[in-house]
Every structure is written in structure tokens, then in C-alpha cells.
């Protein structure tokens, strides 16, 4: 099986797509406009120490000085089972230059909360380069497994440093732990080296962006290739790949095509299908996925499938296929909370048990924690799934402005992403200008959002995009046409994009 990851960034969004033999199995999207600094490490200077508050205030180059508790070390690690010297209070004086890590971002008139107990998070381990502490997640309840993992983690550390064993390590091998500990230690050395030459107030480490999080949590020896569509992202991915003994830079490739990477690998069509509440089954049946405020409801339908013998057999086969597709859609769309699956009614109890087993087996492959509640006589199965990132619905949709926000329409950023694919193909065909006909509402959103600014300054430099708005067009409709004419004849209300 060929397992590939595709990384790209456009329209202010970061995107990571996993495909197995060309079929998408996982999608992650994150906005670059979000400014969450939690986890960043700064070189700071102690401005003042307040003994009565057991706290210090540190200048880190942010708008307000950061708040550093001096007696909270033990509390930070109290959620883990373990021991060490993390209970010791800090001893600081005014003027000290220190490295601090943000644990809470600034809010309102308050500065950020920081700690001197630096940590680097991996899939299985949290590395504490300057904290003598050895701990393990309390979600690992098997005492023999806990003892074994703690012994392995203890072997990996040197004097003065520590590790916390995460829940995911329950199934990790000794080799996995060694590879990850070496990777996290090399990352710390890079940060320490950067900090030695950095001025006070500089961020010497920024918490993982989407690509690094995916490489931390999802990649391993089973990856065939990582294809990257953006040169800047390629450099970031390569820096991480060089630190990973199980990955290596040889598996990372920069997409060299002129058009859209998503279109070139047939991913854009599959992504577009995720924007629909309907998901097709391989036998002609289909699912209808409905998001409600309390839960997600999935309805199973036979569709075009008429079976070969009796009704019970037809329904059973459709439900089996649907169970596996439900698990895939839950992972793809990052569904979270309670999910109710309304399977087609089956009369035989053994058939109901088999469908439940198929669903549980398919969900077991999900890296998010899932729990299945068996179906009853109504043939409705409930399962819970812990959401890892935000669900894709927030990327695809926005509340409809025309129906008191009771319904949903495609979001501006999703329409921009769709339009960008067509513009990429247009310019790849050699056209120097593109004429885009859109609804007036979408035209305003594209101009206000400035989704293509970076492309026009970079890979589209020297090319032109003209918008022709239509009053009677819906905002989910557009038409792109290339044009190389020396003089373009356009309506009076046409606008040059940026």
C-alpha cells in the first residue's frame, strides 16, 4: 500500500492530506491567521520579582510583561504519576536572562503566563530538558505496562532532565521511544544554540504548525512519501525530517508542477466531496451526514443497490459497507462528540452484531479515542469520538446570512480555495490573464479577504485576475476563463484583483 502525505498552504490556510493508494484517509486544516503563541519559547529578562506573590515578571518582547509563578512547579506535573525534583521553587533575581515557555496566552489586560520548565512534545513522550521528573499518563491503567514504560523512559534520560510518557506510548516499542527521545533532544539542542545568540525578547522556538503536528503524531515508517506544494513549507518540513531517523529527507519532495498539486493528484475532487452531506458507498448506497447542535446523525440508505437475493441480505451487505465508510468519514471530517448511525433495519440479531463489530474494527484504526455502544432493536448505533483538531465543517461552511443563521452556506475561504485551483490550472496552461465571473457577494468577500495576495506577489507575479460580479449569481458559483488578448473588453464594474 502506498501511503502519502500532501502538505500545502494557500488562501491563509495550512492543509495536510493523507492518501492511501490515492484515496484520502485524513484531512487537517488550520488557519494561518490564528495567532496562538502557546508553547512558544522566548529569551526573556526578569524585570522584577514580587516575593509576596511568589512570582516574577519577565520581559519577552510581547506587548505586556509575562507572569512567571515561582512555586507552581509541582502543580504543573500533578496530573501525571511519577516522581522527581519538580517541586523545587525557582530562585531568580532582577536582570536574569532566562528561557521561558508560554502556557497561557495574554488576555485582556493580562500578560501571558510562562514557565521555566521547558517541554517538547512528541507522540509518545514529553521531553523536559531542564526538569528532573519522570512521569506517565494516568490513562495507562495497566500497572505492568506503566512499570515497563517508566523503566524504558528512565533509561533514555540523563542527569537533570526528564520525560513524561504519554497515553499513545502504551503500544509503542522500545525502538519508537528511542527514536523519539533522540529527535526531541536534538530539537532542544537547536533551541539552546539559537538562544545563546538571540537577543532578549526573541522567540527561539515556535510551537508546532500544522505540518509539524502531523509529522509528530501521524508519520512513521509506513510513509512512502511526503509531497509539498509550497517552497517555504518544504524548508520547514525538511528541517524536521532531518531530525527524524524513521523518516529522513529522502522521502520529502517539492511538487514541481505548474498547476495545482491537489488537482494533479486527484485530491481536489475528493476534498470537494467532503463539503457535501452525502457520502457515496461502493455498492451504490449512500450516507447522509447531518450535524446538529447536540450530535452528528448519519443515515444509511441502499440507494441504487438492489441486492442479488433477499431483502435481509441486501440490507446486511449495505450496512457492512456503511459501517466501514462511517468510520472513514468520521476520521476525514474529524467528527467529535456523540455520533448516531441509523443503519437500515435488520431482522437478524447476528447481522446487527456483525455490523457493530465491523464499525468497532474500523474505528480501532482511528488515532482518536472512540467508544461504540451496540445497536438495539431500532438498528441505531451510537459511538463517541474525541475530536483531535477542529472539524472540517468549520472550514467548508459558514452560517447563512439570509435565514437568520439557521442554515449554512459555503464559507468564503472554501470558495477561495476552489477558485484558486481553477486559477492555477488557467495559468499553468500559459494564460497571462484570467477573467473570473462570480456573484457580487463572493466578489466582495474575495477582495476583502485578500486570499490570493501571496500568490499574486509570488508564483502569479506578472499575471492578472479580473473579477466580473453578477447580481443574480449565488455565492457558490464562479466561472474562470483564460485570456491573452492585448486589450480586454470588460464590463464597467469589472475589478482587477488587488
Structure, described:
The chain has four domains: about 5-35 and about 210-270, eRF1 domain 2 (Nucleotidyltransferase, domain 5), CATH 3.30.420; about 40-205, no CATH class; about 275-385; about 395-495, Hypothetical Protein Ychn, Chain: A. The chain is of the alpha+beta class and about 500 residues long. The protein starts with a strand and ends with a strand. It is globular and about 70 Å long. Helices cover about 30% and strands about 30% of the residues. About 30% of the residues are buried. The longest helix is centred in the middle third of the chain and has 24 residues, at about 175-195. It contains 13 helices and 28 strands.
Bin the helical content.
25-40%
By DSSP (H or I, 4+ residues per run), the number of helices equals 13
Mean pLDDT: 87
Unreliable parts: none
**Alpha-carbon distance between the two ends:** 44 Å
Proportion of residues in β-strands: 25-35%
Main sheet, how many strands, which sense, barrel?
6 strands, antiparallel
Query: How many discrete structural domains?
Result: 4
| Overall body shape | globular
Number of strands: 28
Rg calculated over all Cα atoms:
26 Å
Secondary structure class reads: alpha+beta
